[in-house]
Amino acid sequence: MSLTTTATLHNGVQIPRLGLGVYKMEDGTDVYHAVLSALEIGYRHIDTASFYQNEEGVGRAIRDSGIPREEIFVTTKVWNDEQGYENTKKAFQASLERLGLDYVDLYLVHWPVPGKYKETYKALEEFYKAKKARAIGVSNFLPHHLEDLLTDVEIKPMANQIELHPQLTQTETREFCKKHDIIVEAWSPLAKARYLDDPVLQSLAEKYNKTAAQIIIRWEYQSDIVTIPKSVKPTRQKENADIFDFELTEEDMKKVDGLNQDKRTGPHPDEFNY
């Protein structure tokens, strides 16, 4: 087990189980150096979005890393004001141009914009058929969004990226995705470091001689969740990746499960200001 350990999407494409998220990293030196250092450490999965406005820096770091393109898994997403069939086609092309890539490994509908996500997803199916996206999926979709989408698709989403951490375990969405063979990815896996001082996490950190953040990432890893913690600092990137030399017991996994409060750091998909 290492940073190159993968999960298999339902179309056979391998997605690295641990990646680097780049939300709120400024385009230019910030995101460039963060992606470059992550790739040097051994990360092979980079997650961006048109909304982050840093695809250019991500693409430049990938090119300058010297690592063959096919060894790096790149995700980007279509933003809410770019949705709709024709708009999504333009948005996708613009993302490819900013990234400087011929294809992406995973392209996601960023949020379930009411009345638009189905036609948006139809455009994604075209990118997939044209081999411009090796996999397609959604983000922030709840079971009712997925049920609605699945009535009308040719190609089932391969992934659903949702806010997920010990205070927001999203059990219902995870179970729905498992039933439909859709991989779950966690954004904000550390909940913006808001409760790393939780006594349960602290006692487990002491027990395993790890940090609370490492306990959370390991819990996600053992829960079959693809995880994309964000950090611009190489030391923190290394720390986040240092989760492969220990294993939480079943009892300790349940302790972390027990922290759930259905507490979000970001908006609820049904209450988002679309």
UniProtKB/TrEMBL annotation:
Stretches for region Disordered: 255-274
Binding site for substrate: H110
GO MF annotations, alphabetized: oxidoreductase activity, acting on the CH-OH group of donors, NAD or NADP as acceptor
Alphabetically ordered keywords of this record: NADP, Oxidoreductase
Limits of the NADP-dependent oxidoreductase domain: 18-260
Site (Lowers pKa of active site Tyr): K77
Gene3D superfamilies: NADP-dependent oxidoreductase domain (3.20.20.100)
Pfam families: Aldo_ket_red (PF00248)
InterPro entries named among the record's database cross-references: AKR, AKR5G, Aldo/ket_reductase_CS, NAD(P)_OxRdtase_dom_sf, NADP_OxRdtase_dom
Keyword NADP: yes
Top-level lineage group: Bacteria
Active site positions, chain numbering: Y52
Protein family (similarity comment): Belongs to the aldo/keto reductase family.
Listed name of the protein: Aldo/keto reductase
Gene source species: Aquibacillus salsiterrae
